[in-house]
Amino acid sequence: MAFAGYNRHMDVIESSELKVELSSFSAAVHSLYVKRPGRYVTLRLPDERLHMDDPSYSGNTIFPYAGRIKGAVWKGMKLDRNDGCNSLHGGFSAHKACFDLLEKSRFHALYHIHRNEGDDCLPCARDYFVRYEVKDSTLLIRHSMNAARPVLCDTTCHLYFNLDGSSTVGNHFIRLESDEMVVNDSEHCGKEIIKTGGTVFDLSDWKLLASVIHCDELSFSRGLNNAYLLKGGSSLQLSAGELMLSAVSDSPAVVLYSGGYLIHPFSFLAVEFQGIPINSMREERKGYERNMAFTFSFL
pTM of the entire structure? Predict the structure, then answer.
């Protein structure tokens, strides 16, 4: 069903199992459609231009850094305050970035953006590349960055999933190979790393998502908005009905956000592969690459 004002001037890549609409606005995944059972499984915005404004950041390429920088200051650099006193998902100008399409085939698309010295409040010029590819039932995403000298860098694709189209993802089951997570402070900034074993946050075996997102410990944040630390080759698995998603990345962590602040709370789960979102653990890089893979299968 088309939305009112829906803009179809988008780049489409397609395999035998998946159809993905992409937008140059924020180099975003506008929609992801699984052909069997015939369903959109990601949050879609009514118009592709909203990728540069919508507070959900749905499907966006998040750069030059993901998550919140507490106090909007990192190593003495003053960043955009676009989330109270903090800096969120790269600041104001990164949210309004329009990428160039460099390559396009039926199966892949490559986007690029150049940032000048001073853009995003960072001190040197940089080039970012975002490559999407579909192979059978897998969406592959590769981010890379080149800079003149080391610079703060931590990117992700801000995808939201709902696998069965129900009104809540609380009915989804989740499993994640991780035994540590980041606890946030009252401003939703990363504070410290804790062990999850034996707690309500332990996802090492299948767990109903509702039992986590509605627990008392997360009432202040309206559910999950936390980073889980990943072991090498760790996979996230999410299932609902007959469909299962397996997601992997070479990132150090994955943020799970259960959408407590969406217009329809808890209707989607955001899966954001990124670095560990604690200010002291963020890194500078001159060159950078991040790989993500999202594979769908049937139970």
Answer: 0.95
